[in-house]
Design brief:
Number of strands: 6
CATH architecture: 3-Layer(aba) Sandwich
Shape: globular
CATH topology: Rossmann fold
Number of helices: 7
Strand content: 15-25%
Length: 187
């Protein structure tokens, strides 16, 4: 099977996250794509607990059998790095074709990450983050996917809007918005 893995904080998950996955499914014939939220040990300001982020991701993809949420990082009870998560995924899903998804902002910084040389051996789809392509990607194992809908929505913008009591209707799925409000997240 051809499987995609999209890791991140998803704090909260946006409609851009979902739409990019849908675009990748349509263009590259994946059997399944998994959202992989980082665990609670990751040091990131304002990161809510993994359970709530998993709940929101499950709401986001509940109507699509080709998109699921993986809680694989729950197995790591430490602040993991990309290589830790990738190795665990490769082990758990061995025998499948694995492709990792990443935004161009993260991909452009990957040369500073732990075990960069090993990371560059994997297959990637790198998502465009804004209208202006900032990367010249020349790797045979990397596909640069243009963002057809030009949605440059960040979770930070959503959290900031919530703190200012501003509308987020066009930034998150309705079920995700309802979950955020019901649980009083990011206020």
């Amino acid at each position: 099977m051809k499987l995609g893995f999209f890791g991140g904080s998803f704090n909260p998950p946006t409609i851009a996250h979902y739409n990019l996955i849908k675009q990748a499914l349509a263009e590259y014939d994946f059997d399944k794509v998994y959202f992989v939220p980082m665990n609670d040990y990751y040091k990131k300001s304002g990161l809510i607990d993994m359970e709530k982020r998993i709940d929101m991701l499950e709401l986001l993809c509940k109507n699509d059998s080709k998109i699921e949420v993986s809680d694989i990082e729950r197995e790591m009870n430490y602040q993991s790095t990309a290589i830790d998560a990738f190795r665990l995924i490769l082990d758990k899903f061995s025998g499948n074709e694995i492709v990792f998804f990443m935004g161009e902002d993260n991909f452009s910084r990957m040369s500073t990450w732990k075990d960069y040389e090993e990371l560059m051996k994997f297959n990637y789809i790198v998502f465009q983050r804004n209208e202006n392509k900032i990367l010249d990607i020349n790797f045979k194992n990397v596909i640069y996917m243009k963002n057809k809908e030009n949605l440059n929505i960040s979770s930070t913008v959503i959290r900031n809007k919530l703190q200012k009591n501003e509308c987020i209707d066009d930034l998150v799925a309705r079920d995700v918005k309802d979950y955020i409000l019901r649980n009083k997240l990011y206020f």
